[in-house]
Specification:
Layout: E1 5-16, E2 23-34, E3 38-42, H1 49-57, E4 64-68, E5 80-83, H2 95-106, H3 112-123, H4 139-151, E6 157-161, H5 169-186, E7 189-194, H6 197-200, E8 205-210, E9 213-219
Parallel strand pairs: 3-7, 3-8, 5-6, 6-7
Antiparallel strand pairs: 1-2, 1-4, 8-9
Helix pairs in contact: 2-3, 2-4, 3-4, 4-5
Length: 224
C-alpha cells in the first residue's frame, strides 16, 4: 500500500445548528485512507458515518479540525467519486447518457467520453442496458448505473454511502461485486459506509462509528 494518503482527517468534528439546538454529528475524529484501501465504516443510522464520508469528499466543511488530500488533484478534488444511497438518475436520459452526464458537464470531449462511459458500464455489468430509460430498469440496475456514472470519472478514491441500503440481499451483493471489481480495475481506494454485515465482512478494514465517534481497527481476514 502506498505511503501517500489520499485523504487525511485530523481531529475533525462537524456540528449542525447552534446553541441549544446544536447537534454534533461527528466528534473529534482522525483517520487516513491510502491507495489500495478497502474500508467499511460500520454503524447504525444516525451514528455520523455519512457525515464523515461527506467530510472526506469535501462536501461538508469541518466545524473543527482539518481534512486534506495530500496525494490527490488539488483542483477541486476531482480524483474523488461519491456514490449516494439513491441513484438519482435523470428520467428522460437513457443509461448511457446518465452515466456520461458528469463528463459532459466537465467538458470531456468525444471520443474519449464515449469510451470512458462504455468501460464504466461494462465494469458494473449494465452495458447491455445502455439505451434503456431509468423507468425500464430495476432498482439494483439503477444503482449500478449510478456507480458507473462515478467510475466514468476514473476516481482514485471512491466513497460509497450505504450503496446497498435500498437493495435486496442478492442485488446488494451484485453491486458490491461490481464496486470491488471496478475499484480493482481502476486502482482506486474504496470506503463504504454500511450497517450491512455481508458488506462489512467483504472489506479488508473495518472502522466503526457510534454517536459520532470514530474507532479505527486493524486489517482483518476477508470473507469471499
Amino acid at each position: 500500500m502506498s505511503t501517500d494518503a489520499l485523504v487525511v482527517c485530523d481531529d475533525v468534528a462537524r456540528t449542525f445548528g447552534s446553541g441549544a439546538a446544536a447537534v454534533v454529528a461527528v466528534h473529534g475524529s482522525s483517520c487516513s485512507v491510502h491507495s489500495g484501501a478497502r474500508i467499511a465504516i460500520a454503524g447504525p443510522s444516525g451514528s455520523g458515518k455519512s457525515t464523515l464520508l461527506h467530510l472526506m469528499a469535501g462536501l461538508e466543511r469541518p466545524t473543527r479540525g482539518t481534512v486534506t488530500w495530500p496525494a490527490l488533484d488539488p483542483a477541486g478534488i476531482r480524483d474523488i467519486g461519491v456514490v449516494f444511497q439513491s441513484p438519482s438518475l435523470v428520467p428522460n436520459l437513457d443509461v448511457r447518457e446518465n452515466a456520461g452526464l458528469p463528463l459532459v458537464i466537465a467538458g470531456v470531449e468525444d471520443p474519449g467520453r464515449a469510451e470512458r462511459v462504455s468501460e464504466a458500464l461494462a465494469l458494473v455489468g449494465v452495458d447491455d442496458l445502455a439505451t434503456k430509460l431509468p423507468e425500464e430498469i430495476s432498482g439494483g440496475q439503477a444503482q449500478r448505473v449510478a456507480v458507473a456514472r462515478v467510475l466514468a470519472q476514473r476516481p482514485r478514491l471512491l466513497l460509497a454511502d450505504e450503496p446497498t441500503g435500498q437493495l435486496d440481499r442478492a442485488a446488494g451483493q451484485r453491486l458490491l461485486d461490481a464496486l470491488l471489481a471496478a475499484t480493482e480495475h481502476l486502482g482506486a481506494a474504496l470506503v463504504v459506509t454500511t450497517h450491512d454485515r455481508t458488506v462489512i465482512d467483504r472489506l479488508e478494514t473495518r472502522w466503526t462509528m457510534h454517536e459520532g465517534r470514530l474507532r479505527t481497527t486493524a486489517d482483518r481476514t476477508v470473507t469471499s
